[in-house]
Amino acid sequence: MVGAIALGLLSGVAGFIPLLVGLHLTKRVTATSNFGYMSILIIALIISFVLMFAFALLCVAFARDLALPFVLAEAVALSVVAIGYGVNRLVRK
C-alpha cells in the first residue's frame, strides 16, 4: 500500500506539470493573438485530467485493490502542489 501511495503522489505531481507549462505559455500570448489565455489554460487542464485519469486506469488494471489509496494520494498531491505553488507565488511578490 505504501508503494501505491508513493506512486500516487508522483503521478499527482506529474499531473500538475501541464498546468505549470500552460501558465508559462500564457505569458507569451499577445493581445491580438487568436490563441487566448483561457484556451491555453483549458487545454492544459484537459491534458492534466487525461494524464491523471490514465495513471488511475493503469493502477486499476494492474492492482485493483490498491486503486483507492493511489487515487486519493494522486488527488491530494495535485492539490498540495497547486496550493503550494500559488502560495509561493504570492509570497514572492
Q: Spans of 5+ residues with little confidence (pLDDT < 50)?
A: none
Rg value: 15 Å
Proportion of helical residues: over 70%
Report the end-to-end length measured between terminal Cα atoms: 40 Å
How many runs of DSSP E, i.e. beta strands? 0
Mean pLDDT: 91
Structural class of the secondary elements? mainly alpha
Provide the succession of SSEs: HHH
**Main sheet specs:** none
Shape: elongated
Measured by DSSP, the beta-strand proportion falls in under 5%
> So how many helices?
3
List the topology elements.
Layout: H1 2-25, H2 37-62, H3 67-92
How would you characterize this protein structure?
The protein is mostly helical. The protein is 82% helix and 0% strand. It has 3 helices and no strands. It has helices spanning 2-25, 37-62, 67-92. Helix 1 runs parallel beside helix 3. The longest helix is centred in the middle third of the chain and has 26 residues, at 37-62. It is elongated and about 50 Å long. The chain starts with a helix and ends with a helix.
